Amino acid sequence: MSTQSTLTITGWLGSDVKYSPGGDGSVPYAWFRLGATRRFYDRASGEWRDAATQWFTVKVWRHVAANVAQSLRKGDPVLVHGRFATDEWAGPDGLRTTLVIEADALGPDLSFGSSHFARTVSPGRDQTPEGAPADLSALAELDDEAQPDAEPAELEPADEAEEDLSTAALTLAGSR
User: Which structural domains are found in the chain, ordered by start?
Assistant: First the structure.
C-alpha cells in the first residue's frame, strides 16, 4: 500500500504555463501556478464568503507537459489530480518552501465552460507490443472542417414526458 498523499483540487491558472521541451537527455516538463479559493456560507451574515486563496505550483512531465502547454492559459478553470510535494529553495530571506502538486491528470473544469478534446498520438505511446504503430483508423474525427458538406445537427425539443423526467432528475440530483 502506498503512503504517498494524492489530492484532486479545482482552481484557476494564476500564470501562463511555462514549458521546457527537454533535449540533451532531459525530460520535458511544464509548470504553472494554481490558485484555489474555498467558498463558504456565513450563516451569521447570510452571505457567501471567500476564504484565503491557497497557491500551488503544478508540475507535469513528459508527454503531458506538451499537452498542458498547448491547452491551458492563464485564467482558465482547471481540475488537477496528483501527488503532494514541496520544493525548498534559498531566497533573500532564507530557506523558502513552495507547495507543489506533481500532476498525473488534469484538464479544464467543465462546470465553467465547454471544451473539445483532441487526441494526441505519439510514436512511443501508441505502438503495439511488436513496435508497429497502433491502428487508429477506427477513431472517428469530429472536426466540422473534415465534413464540409454535413449540415449542423439541430436539437429537437423534448416532449413533455421527457421534460418532466429531466426536471425530476435535476431535483433529485440537487437534493444530494
Answer: 6-113 (2.40.50.140)
